[in-house]
Design brief:
This protein is 49% helix and 9% strand. It contains 14 helices and 5 strands.
Length: 284
Amino acid sequence: MINNLFLSVGAMKAGTTWLYEQLKDLPDIYFTPEKEIHYFANKVGIEKQLNHRNRILKLKSVMERYGAGNPKFISQNIDEIVWYANYAHPEEISNEWYESLFSQNPGKKFCADFSNLYCQMDEEGWRNVHEISPNVKVVYTLRDPLSRLWSHYKFHMKWVGQEDNALDAGFENFKNLLDKPWFWCNAEYARNYRKLTASLSENQLMLLYFEDFREKPVQNLKRVLKFIGLEERGVESLGLEKKVNPTKNFDFPDEWRSYALEKLEPIYEECEQLGIASSKWSRE
């Protein structure tokens, strides 16, 4: 088993990459070479990207990256090569396979796994988590629904190679994307929060707000470490204010904004009813 497991579970474009960048070099947390494994979500069918072919292709890219190097260069990166060989080897994924991905942990207190898909899991998915680790700490990051949605749209357009055409793609493209279940599920904070609280106790789950750690990054990073149960050593202000994985700063067209706000109104209301809305969310 993995004695201590830390999971960051989304929402997408709510600062999870920023949190990863701050934690990845701290002395008490171990991260695998693959930042987002998505194992638990794949196990219950939310995604299927961990099929054998996809894992082989990732190993192939690693071999191509290091294969032309001299022996010293390969030796310096042998741990990563071995990790991806282990990642790709079995045809079927399993709890044992997932645990083996953390076998190179050099004695750090917590193993970490980031996936914005885990917040969508029901009790079956979380049963797998609890079978693997007796001590689970989970952070669910939230962001003003409107600003998160706009950032997610721009990120998607960047992902498909159309960042410069984010506006030229048109209003209909924007509306159609919002209607895609895989896109919209990231906005369903209340629904996802209910799923999390159904399987996690109060001391296992922490809500973290994008607006808070943008305003006070050091203080809120220390809050995360305290929640996990780790010392605050290694936390410095240098670089904490830096944006991570930014998208271009396009203005949100008024018609698009009004449409998005109308669709998001139930999300705002549900969050307020559950007491998980931030006072910094403006709906503007």
